[in-house]
Specification:
Blueprint (H helix, E strand, L loop, with lengths): L10 H11 L2 E9 L9 E6 L10 E4 L6 H4 L2 H15 L3 H4 L9 E9 L4 E7 L11 E4 L15 E2 L17 E2 L10 H15 L2 E6 L8 E2 L9 E4 L3 E4 L27 H4 E3 L6 E4 L3 E2 L2 H4 L2 H4 L12 H7 L5 E2 L8 H14 L12 E2 L3 E3 L16 H8 L1 H10 L6 E3 L2 H18 L12 H22 L3 H21 L4 H15 L4 H10 L16 H4 L3 E8 L2 E9 L4
Parallel strand pairs: 3-5, 16-17, 18-19
Antiparallel strand pairs: 1-2, 1-9, 3-6, 4-5, 7-8, 10-15, 11-12, 11-14, 13-14, 20-21
Helix pairs in contact: 11-12, 12-13, 13-15, 14-15, 14-16, 15-16, 16-17
Length: 568
């Protein structure tokens, strides 16, 4: 899949999607089994390393491969059948685990490598899957770290001196022990061998994908009904557009039958065929809910639009989504499906953009106080509703944002949220003071306060734009500490104090929306704080008046000097 236009997506998400799609460019090549006297006379395989074809020492079939039963010899049948039964009871995830020891059994049969006419034994192993490729893999252990014990070197490093290699060589080099292709670079060998394989009809250049078709039907109630009907006369027909949407019935019974609850709803199942007018039955499976969430961002824009999935004028104004936030666990599900949907709609001419979400940010995971993932079995689950009931929603929100970088998450801390609650109480206290009580006339303290205010606004704006909520809150904490000091000294004028309070509330509003709304109203300002612009700043007013000059002699710090900043 093309990843252009996703420069602001995390690399790990793109890597996960790329691996899930699993695009591989290589060659389909078949091995001769005509000597076995079967109807099928060859075993097709796919390889991305046709340059290693002379290093093949065995073939491996998936235990579920259709030929396994036919090629297994009598003396190996019992062992093979036991292995097949064991493989069928193991999940694909476990079979592909990097930690699992590779196992396999010999079928007793051989195939012929057409490039050098050598007989190679045929094994079965559970690390080969029927759902990927052809279900058959050629074993080249010299260039596969998993099978190096069976190695025959056919690609050698440029600096190779002919001695035995101690581990599988996976890089580029020149071809050796490869017949007429000896001395070629492996890149040259790929092209030459591919040409010869195609010329002799033994295979062809091909592209393989790990990803498979999406089975969208589900035997459950919650989901969009699949809008198809079955008629004995007309066959399978889609529901007419004017009869959409097909709605879920309210009388469904939920029983542990393994069937969709819709099966038991006679009013839902029985309908009339719009083709012949005779009796028909509805499809009772519903769609995978990812079918809905893959394009929900479009429907949300115009949920009542009846002439299509989305109002095109509204979509043109608002799509694609500028910023999307969500968990990394959706990388190869929702985030991938949404991209497929939009690309299909683009190809159909229904949208004029090819990616649904231009910028992606993944939030981290909140752990228990024991720094472990929250789970009932560990007894470390924190119910946020309970905490909100005591501390308030704003305290919980600010604590979760202050706990660490937003994409890292962190452990829950009772002490930490208490600290945040105390700080919010200080903000409340500062915002409700009467500025008229101040009599500062504006001097160095006012200049320092104004500079700090503009620096804080600038920093907070930049931090929020980069999802650095923790440092944005930290900068506001520094400002509140400063405001408390100048209030004690009575060293700033009332107008400056009011400006500081107003901008502090505006900066804090996205993180503590309830408290800031209340304080905004109490101050006599118009509804609502959340309809105001983010405060601006002046770079000149934010500029430091002095900077620290570090004096070093022979690499050692000898002094630190406060030097005035020169402004042009």
């Amino acid at each position: 899949m093309d990843f252009s236009g996703l420069e602001e997506w995390p690399d790990k998400i793109l890597t996960m999607q790329n691996n899930w799609i699993g695009k591989s460019t290589g060659v389909d090549i078949s091995f001769d089994i005509s000597s076995l006297g079967l109807e099928e006379r060859e075993i097709p395989t796919f390889t991305t390393r046709i340059d290693t074809i002379f290093g093949v020492t065995f073939l491996v079939l998936a235990p579920e491969h259709r030929l396994v039963d036919q090629i297994t010899t009598p003396q190996h049948r019992s062992e093979v059948e036991q292995y097949v039964a064991q493989a069928r009871s193991t999940s694909e995830i476990d079979r592909l685990s990097a930690d699992k020891e590779k196992t396999g059994v010999f079928t007793g049969s051989y195939a012929v490598n057409r490039l050098n006419y050598e007989r190679v034994p045929i094994f079965i192993s559970d690390y080969v899957l029927m759902t990927y490729g052809t279900g058959a893999v050629m074993g080249v252990p010299a260039h596969d770290a998993r099978d190096f014990d069976f190695a025959r070197q056919v690609i050698a490093p440029i600096s190779w001196d002919g001695s035995d290699l101690m581990e599988a060589y996976l890089g580029d080099g020149f071809m050796t022990s490869s017949g007429p292709y000896d001395g070629m670079t492996n890149e040259e060998g790929v092209e030459a061998i591919s040409d010869d394989v195609e010329k002799h009809g033994w295979g062809k250049r091909a592209v393989s994908y790990r990803i498979r078709d999406w089975l969208i039907s589900r035997q459950r109630y919650w989901g969009t009904p699949i809008p198809m009907i079955y008629c004995e006369s007309c066959g399978v027909l889609p529901v007419r557009e004017e009869d959409l949407p097909v709605l879920l019935p309210s009388d469904a019974e939920f029983k542990p039958t393994g069937e969709s609850p819709l099966v038991a709803s006679a009013d839902f199942v029985n309908t009339t065929c719009h083709g012949c007018g005779g009796p028909a039955k509805r499809e009772t499976d519903t769609m995978d809910t990812f079918m809905d969430s893959s394009w929900y961002m479009m429907r949300y824009l115009s949920p009542h639009f009846s002439d299509g999935p989305v109002d095109p004028e509204v979509a043109k104004a608002w799509l694609p989504v500028d910023q999307y936030t969500g968990g990394a666990e959706h990388a190869v599900m929702h985030l991938l499906y949404s991209r497929f949907f939009i690309k299909a709609l683009y190809d159909m001419g229904m949208v004029d953009f090819e990616e649904p979400f231009l910028r992606l940010f993944n939030q981290g995971v909140i752990l228990g106080q024991d720094h472990e993932k929250m789970s009932k079995s560990r007894g470390n689950v924190v119910n946020p509703d309970d905490v909100v009931g005591v501390m308030g929603a704003d305290a919980v929100r600010c604590f979760l944002m202050f706990i660490g970088p937003w994409d890292h998450g962190g452990p829950w801390s009772g002490e930490g949220i208490n600290g945040i609650a105390r700080w919010l109480n200080r903000v409340w206290d500062i915002a409700t003071r009467d500025a008229a009580a101040l009599d500062g006339s504006g001097g160095s303290a006012s200049r320092e306060t104004r500079r700090m205010l503009h620096q804080t606004v600038r920093k907070c704006y930049g931090d929020l734009d980069r999802f650095k909520f923790n440092t944005a809150i930290a900068s506001m904490m520094e400002l509140t500490n400063h405001l408390n000091r100048v209030w004690s000294d009575q060293s700033v004028e009332p107008e400056l104090w009011s400006e500081c309070v107003e901008k502090l509330l505006l900066m804090l509003a996205p993180m503590a929306p309830h408290m800031t709304e209340e304080l905004w109203e109490r101050s006599g300002r118009g509804y609502s704080i959340h309809q105001q612009d983010f405060p601006g700043w002046d770079d000149d007013l934010a500029a430091d008046e002095v900077f620290t000059l570090v004096v070093q002699v022979n690499g050692k710090v000898r002094d630190k000097l406060e030097v005035p900043v020169w402004h042009s």
